[in-house]
Amino acid sequence: MTVADERLAATGVARRLLIRPELGAVVGALVVFAFFAGQSEVFRSVEGVANWLDPASTLGIMAVAIALLMIGGEFDLSAGVLTGTVGLVTVILATRYDLPVWAAMLAALAVALLVGFLNGLVVVRTGLPSFIVTLATFLMLQGVNLGVTKALTGTVQVGGLRRAEGYEEVRAVLAGTIPVGGTDFRVAILWWLAVTALATWVLTRTRAGNWIFAVGGDERAARAVGVPAERTKIALFVTTAGAAWLVGSIMALRFTSVQAGSGVGQEFVYIIAAVIGGCLLTGGHGSAIGAAVGAVIFGMADKGIVFAGWDADWFTFFLGAMLLLATLANRFVRRYAEEVKR
Amino acid sequence: MTVADERLAATGVARRLLIRPELGAVVGALVVFAFFAGQSEVFRSVEGVANWLDPASTLGIMAVAIALLMIGGEFDLSAGVLTGTVGLVTVILATRYDLPVWAAMLAALAVALLVGFLNGLVVVRTGLPSFIVTLATFLMLQGVNLGVTKALTGTVQVGGLRRAEGYEEVRAVLAGTIPVGGTDFRVAILWWLAVTALATWVLTRTRAGNWIFAVGGDERAARAVGVPAERTKIALFVTTAGAAWLVGSIMALRFTSVQAGSGVGQEFVYIIAAVIGGCLLTGGHGSAIGAAVGAVIFGMADKGIVFAGWDADWFTFFLGAMLLLATLANRFVRRYAEEVKR
Amino acid sequence: MTGDGAVTEGGTDAPPLLEVRDVGKTFGGVIALRDVSMRVRAGEVSCVLGDNGAGKSTLIKILSGVHAPDSGSYLVDGAPAAFASPRDALDKGIATVYQDLAMIPLMSVWRNFFLGSEPVLGRGPLRRFDVTGAKRTVREELRSMGIDIRDVDQPVGTLSGGERQSVAIARAVHFGARVLILDEPTSALGVKQAGVVLRYVAQARDRGLGVVFITHNPHHAYPIGDRFLLLNRGASLGEYAKADITPEELTSLMAGGAELEQLAHELSRGGPAAGPGTPGTPGTPETPETGPPP
Amino acid sequence: MTGDGAVTEGGTDAPPLLEVRDVGKTFGGVIALRDVSMRVRAGEVSCVLGDNGAGKSTLIKILSGVHAPDSGSYLVDGAPAAFASPRDALDKGIATVYQDLAMIPLMSVWRNFFLGSEPVLGRGPLRRFDVTGAKRTVREELRSMGIDIRDVDQPVGTLSGGERQSVAIARAVHFGARVLILDEPTSALGVKQAGVVLRYVAQARDRGLGVVFITHNPHHAYPIGDRFLLLNRGASLGEYAKADITPEELTSLMAGGAELEQLAHELSRGGPAAGPGTPGTPGTPETPETGPPP
Amino acid sequence: GGQPTKETAGAASGPAPAAGGGTFAVVTHASAGDAFWDVVKNGAEAAGKRYGVTVTYQGDGDPARQSQLIDQAVSQKVDGLVVSMANPDALKESVGKAVTAGIPVITINSGGDVSREFGAVTHVGQSEDVAGRGAGEKLKAEGVTKLLCVIHEAGNVGLDQRCNGATQGLGGTVERLQVDVGNLADATSKIKARLQADTSLNGVLTLNPAVAVAARDAIADGGSKAKLGTFDLSADVVAAIEDGEILFAVDQQQYLQGWLPITFLTLYKENLNTVGGGLPVNTGPGFVTKDNAAKVAKLAESGTR
Ligand SMILES: Nc1ncnc2c1ncn2[C@@H]1O[C@H](COP(=O)(O)OP(=O)(O)OP(=O)(O)O)[C@@H](O)[C@H]1O
Ligand SMILES: Nc1ncnc2c1ncn2[C@@H]1O[C@H](COP(=O)(O)OP(=O)(O)OP(=O)(O)O)[C@@H](O)[C@H]1O
Ligand SMILES: [Mg+2]
Ligand SMILES: [Mg+2]
């Protein structure tokens, strides 16, 4: 590194810059942005940006958490529906049992963390693939959400959080807006950035981060050198559940009502964002920033198609094409970067 | 094997029987069957069996194909929606362009195989994870299905296959029924058994089978000893597409009309069935019989809850619980079996 | 040479660092190890020798907490121990180089090196992995083994076989506080690096560590070993002190008897390349690893 | 000993089986191999020697079609060849034992053995893998290597390190028709099995195969090798015929000079276990692998 | 099917407003491909073509995403907005934003009770439970006492409201069943299973025409005597009604829920007209039965009924 080594080829500065694995995802995002910016003026306006950053932020929080979990070699299919559970618990407790909003949220947090802990515990104890375990959790939570909501309210949605005690204060923190350049940006964007920064710190600069990479890369080898693999995995499931709580709360506070089916189907969007951002499905490799950028790519493609005004019938077609484009750009840049180093 | 080896512990016959990995899945299936047979008389009647075997058969055909693909280390998320594409192409060609049914089916087969081939080609050429590639295919096909159907018919479904030329003959072969013990069983069940037998033969008794295990277990190592990894993977994607064609045709012939959204969401059910049956998500391990039994487990749990008459709101809750139960039984038996050998 | 060459209870009064008594291990129907006893004493090198599949790795995995023995007992410092995981063994200062559980291929060299024992800086929520310190340490440790790594950020999976093994050894030496367990550590190493490893072993021994050393190379085992445990098909053939066994006997035991004598003749040929170094020339070992001629 | 020890064009008129001229290979910014030339002739054993990370494995991966060289040319039977995959090399009768690309852990021993070259029975749609034949062959091949496998249905991942390596070698020997490339084949093997492998190499040579043999053990390399290619940090230090080099020179080259002389003294100590076999005793190699005393 | 190109897709409903026209956005609570809402879309687009205005149609069943679609329409400064409000609470903020931005809003289908309060110009159509009630009454008249309501998307408010309405209309027992509309073999099998397991069920109500066909097969295969009613039309359903296999199909005439709001918005924009002074305009319920099936058969096939 310091001394020149005849076994290393000379590399330019520009190429060196491309070495960071996140850069592939960033380039993918730029491609998608450039594409839609060319299609629609609104898309590239401040308002437009505020618009597509909004869904990207909540998706991003989850994608980052799921990315950590996937780097650790596991899946969580129950994360999406858990956001719904959190919202339902919060709204039901705050409106039907008259708890202050913050108390209801704390109760929901406890529920979420418990679900995450159980997921992790069952996975490490039974040795079943987390795909199956969290699928079962997913199905069971979905049933609970619907069954309990129906039993309590007779319909499949609960609402009225707006009238609950302490609503406005909590809302400002989690679901408010911040005016920037005359446009309201969602405060969730800040949460998303914070979560990404924290996850990046943990992943690259702490012992826990080292353990996460190790258990995802080769669990047996990691255990053999003394990594507490079970604890690491359980902690990852709990972290994911914590993220689901954050997102579920943000959504509940913002929309003040929650449907029993809320969050169903989102679990795959999280995984998709993480994979677009460069996480390996087999574990052991990926980055939090990549997942956050993956969420932006997904959010841009998702909203860009609407801004471009293309026929809604063909929506998924374009979405698929954009995702392929973005990941190809990512891959292309990474290949190029790999020619520079390693 | 022939001579006693002092380094082998003595094992009983019963334990030896449990060695086959499929047996775990079978035990899981028996547990689920016993459970629901106790809950509902109709469930265990001939009629009931015919009923839940019906969806299990089409699911089973796909699960077996997906299992081969997963053993080969890849996913196909586009298989579900491809069954819809096949149905749409068949019905549109047979009713709007007046082709005989068999010709329309052949055209649909060409389309399906092309999609499978492209999936495989993109995966092996770009090196992108098949999860992302086939996700893009999934989204794009979904858009095409809806967009084209709308463009051609103005509605979201096409129908009228019954009036097409040669319908009855083909239907009898693919979507007819066979009376057994006074109850009509679907002929698709035979197709399912045939596909399972064929896949088992290929997997355990042919060169191709050896290659499938190898590319899924360690693609680089397989390539290094001369396995044509790319060809094997492409062939697996094409096979999956072929299975989707079979299932799509069976469905189209049976219902004579196809919705644009048909098959969406099924891709995960296929994967679930394969995983319940013991396929590893990371590739390199699994069996066709296991996947077929996984389909039966899923089918039984899915229908058993309805037979048992439990509250529909809680449906997914029970489904999740049953899946967990079945996979735990599978795992338990396999652990026990592994104590006997390896 | 018979079983009576086995070591009798010595005069040392301190309990051995590690001791297993009649341990056995089965994997399903496979009996990998049966009734094997062994002691690891401070300041001694215990060699475990045996044919392929004899159970050497299984034995050291029991010592290092990877496997729990199915039968027999395991004592650390004379007290019964039950390691739930290799973490427990590490916490007792037992560091291991495994034959097959080595490294995480996708992780960089420095991350692998400190895996499980990451050095930290700062405190509380600011406690963080000391990355620059870690990188520097790794570079130095490897250089002193004769491995000049290009870039400690390189994923371990792209290292050469010997480089990879060197990282594992350097790690064990760095963290081994009381016992060092080395399972065929020199198998992929160059002549120079293998020499360095043997020197490490000698240094560790001299510092009072207990060392367990597994090798198939009698030229490596004899000079450094104090005791030799011989395994065969999962069972113990006895434990010998160096004083009780000659290098020839050891080699012959490892090779499973004298049947290899003829190999030297088989390898020789009257081909055109036969030169000064053909087998038979004095000073050159006639047969590979079958030891010096009598 | 200087570079003029390098082999000059011999009098043989048949083109070498394999020849690489000035090949180089870089991985991204890493230059793993630079301007290396080598020939593999029928009936000869070419040894590739060098320190860890010298580029030996990279070179043989070029020979066996795993890597395409970035520069230089590759000739098979005197005609330029460009292997798209190891399959092409296998089809030309070149079989390889890789150092790190060995086996599929989840697959059984017999499936691994025949992977890529499955024996078939029947024809047309009934063409099938000859399972019983395959199992029998594997068992026999392994037994003749001195490996008595319990059960050929055992997944390779559960074999011991040496058993696993033996399967790879037995496979290469079974399928190697014209060239046999062995990358550190004996590293995990017991004394007996290593002897068997060397015997195999001699047999293959005598049958007229070209053999490329990589090892870190001069005791293995010298007796069997006809030519020695020395690599250092990715570059060639020259190719020597056996006639041009003494065992001492070879050992010293492999070890990177005489600096190891002192190791013998470092390893010795006046400990209680010092017995008849202490270093220095005549007839015992003083230092591991540093070769016989002058 | 031909490969779609960007140009053709853009031309179909591009954002470029026709001369003198405007751009109206329709945002509903159903995803693309839903049989009912597809007819609404057809109606809106046909009206757009007729009046020379640009109509964009988007929909998503998730209220959060629906509200984002409304936000997007607002930032695109559309000239009018048509919203279905299955979950008014969740849309309150977004609709409010549109109203504040001076965009005329018309609510359709559901949410009629809060339409005014949210500042909408008017409401077209009636809520799902009114339609459900109609279906329930009709089944009651046919002697159904115990009804199976087949839900093809768990947790969807609209479907739940239809079943709730049917419960009120029937006055008897209503049981629910969840099926997957993506797999009709599975749906058939489940309906059959339910009918086999509980023979006292004498009526089935499906909420989607494809599921109706599956239910018809299930009833026939299982030898059940249950009467079958459904929501919404398709060619198969009309044929089955003609054959007497399906009693009726609830027809909200949802084409009007697409056509009318575009008409109203055009009038409002050009002439500031508000039809009925802002009172809700009902589009149904209507029923397609054996009597009128023949007449609507062709229309159903072309996607306007
Ligand atoms: N997980 C396992 N399942 C089944 N058999 C196993 C397992 N692990 C080891 N074995 C068997 O136990 C025996 C002993 O293995 P072990 O690895 O201890 O041998 P070893 O003495 O280290 O051999 P080598 O010198 O080749 O490394 C081998 O025959 C091996 O096949
Ligand atoms: N895929 C790769 N990416 C980056 N560097 C690589 C890659 N493969 C090999 N190298 C580097 O190239 C050099 C040569 O490696 P090679 O495996 O050929 O060494 P070797 O001579 O076989 O060493 P050993 O004796 O330890 O097996 C090493 O320094 C290694 O780190
Ligand atoms: Mg071993
Ligand atoms: Mg090497």
UniProtKB/TrEMBL annotation, chains A, B:
UniProt-annotated location(s): Cell membrane
Record flagged with keyword S-adenosyl-L-methionine: no
Primary localization class, coarse: membrane
InterPro entries on file: ABC_transp_permease (IPR001851)
Alphabetized CDD domains for the sequence: TM_PBP1_transp_AraH_like
Keywords noted in UniProt: Cell inner membrane, Cell membrane, Membrane, Sugar transport, Transmembrane, Transmembrane helix, Transport
Membrane topology field: Multi-pass membrane protein
A Pfam family per the record: BPD_transp_2
Membrane spanning residue stretches: 17-37, 49-71, 77-94, 101-122, 185-203, 234-256, 268-301, 313-333
Known role: Part of the binding-protein-dependent transport system for D-xylose. Probably responsible for the translocation of the substrate across the membrane.
Protein name: Xylose transport system permease protein XylH
Species of provenance: Streptosporangium vulgare
Higher taxonomy: Bacteria, Bacillati, Actinomycetota, Actinomycetes, Streptosporangiales
TrEMBL record, chains C, D:
Origin superkingdom: Bacteria
Region (Disordered): 263-294
Pfam families: ABC_tran
UniProt xrefs under PANTHER family: CARBOHYDRATE TRANSPORT ATP-BINDING PROTEIN MG119-RELATED (PTHR43790), SUGAR ABC TRANSPORTER ATP-BINDING PROTEIN (PTHR43790:SF8)
Organism: Streptosporangium vulgare
PROSITE patterns associated with the record: ABC_TRANSPORTER_2
Entry annotated with the keyword Cytoplasm: no
Bias kind Low complexity: ranges: 281-294
Single GO term (MF): ATP binding
UniProt domain ABC transporter: residue ranges: 18-258
Listed InterPro entries: AAA+_ATPase, ABC_carbohydrate_import_ATPase, ABC_transporter-like_ATP-bd, P-loop_NTPase
Record keywords, A-Z: ATP-binding, Nucleotide-binding
The protein's name: ATP-binding cassette domain-containing protein
Membrane spanning residue stretches: none
Gene3D superfamilies for this protein: P-loop containing nucleotide triphosphate hydrolases
